[in-house]
Amino acid sequence: MRAGFADPVLDAQACFRAVLEAMARPGRVHRVAAPPEPPAPLAAAAAAVLLTLADADTPAWLDAGAGAEAWLRFHAGCPLAASPAQAGFVLACGAPPRLAALAQGTEEEPHRSATLILQVKALEPGAGWRLTGPGIEREHRLLVEGMPPDFPAQWAANRAGFPCGVDVILCAGDRLAALPRTTALEIG
């Protein structure tokens, strides 16, 4: 079994702070300070986010194989969901499930929606998508390599369902960025 965080309390706190900053400032790229060394195909940032957010009360689903599932159960103690639709946290290393297929929450309980943790090839600020909305003064640019071509259309439909909808955390290596459901995304 590969190790989780070297210092579970301090490393999880640092990762939680990076996730909070990413959610508060959509599209800004943050580094995970002391990521774990997870089993393949999990990337360091995606594994750190799972170890930080997943717990015994929130089912998770991941497409990373039996070794990664055993690693996550051992280190986070979280139950594994049978499908992405039943999970509070969904980690996609490969092709992600459609946003509309994930838990959306309800008008009374929008917090019951899923968070999609999506591994991508690269995250670079300054080019790519044009992001606007809460937490962004004017606009922010984020280049994301490795996204499905129809993601912008899925995102527009997801955003239209506010206050329901899915939040997304993008992870590449030891870097992460977030797309809260309130963020508008335009190509170019």
Keywords:
single chain, 188 residues, alpha/beta, three-stranded antiparallel sheet, 26% helix, globular
What does this protein look like?
The chain is an alpha/beta fold and 188 residues long. The chain is built from four helices and nine strands, in the order H-E-H-E-H-E-E-E-E-H-E-E-E. It has helices at residues 8-24, 44-53, 66-76, 151-160, and strands at residues 30-31, 60-62, 89-92, 115-119, 122-132, 140-145, 167-172, 175-179, 184-186. The strands form two sheets. Strands 1-8-7-4-3-2 form a six-stranded mixed β-sheet. A three-stranded antiparallel β-sheet has the order 6-5-9, with helices on one face. Helix 1 (8-24) packs across helix 2. The protein is globular.
Low-confidence stretches: none
Q: Tell me, what's the shape?
A: globular
Helical coverage, percent range: 25-40%
Using the CA coordinates, give the radius of gyration: 15 Å
- Overall mean pLDDT stands at 95
Major pleated sheet: 6 strands, mixed
The percentage of residues in β strands lies in 15-25%
Order of helices and strands: HEHEHEEEEHEEE
Question: Distance between the terminal alpha carbons, to the nearest Å?
Answer: 43 Å
Structural class designation: alpha/beta
Please tally the β strands and state the result.
9
